[in-house]
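== Sequence, structure tokens ==
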Amino acid sequence: MNDTNKFAQSLKHNRAFTAKLLFDLHLIITEQAADVYRDMGIIFPVSVSSTVLYLNSVEQASLTQIAKALSQPHQLISQRIKTLLKLDLLVKSSDKVDKRRTFYSLSSVGKQQGKLLKEYCYGAEVAFNNISEEIGVDLHELLNQSIDSLHKNSFSNRWKRTEND
């Protein structure tokens, strides 16, 4: 094993780099889901899926409403909206009362893509359940519990406690 492989393996087993492992998992899932998207005819990137799913569930929404619904930063949602607009999957309309506010809704093609995404979600749920059974841990529940735990007691608070140990 060369030095690069040794280092990669050491990171894989170093709990201080748990966030890197989660990011690696994210990249693998995103890459493999993109293959499924292509096979299904889904034309938008995996990264904008939750935005499409949300807009598929409402008639229209502002950027702020989307960000709140997805618990995502405004800037990230803005980038996703730009991607969806370039793909002609969204329609923009101005608020009749507040001209500064813009609403977004799925275009007819966007609605078709939204239906495909819902179909994908059914298969993805089965696939993730399969992974959970294979590894003997409910991955979805584990991630939700981890997120909840960090909201209750932040990583920085936990880290600060190590200074006193």
Notes: Strands lie at 61-62, 90-94, 102-106. The first helix runs from residue 3 to 12. The two ends are 36 Å apart (CA to CA).
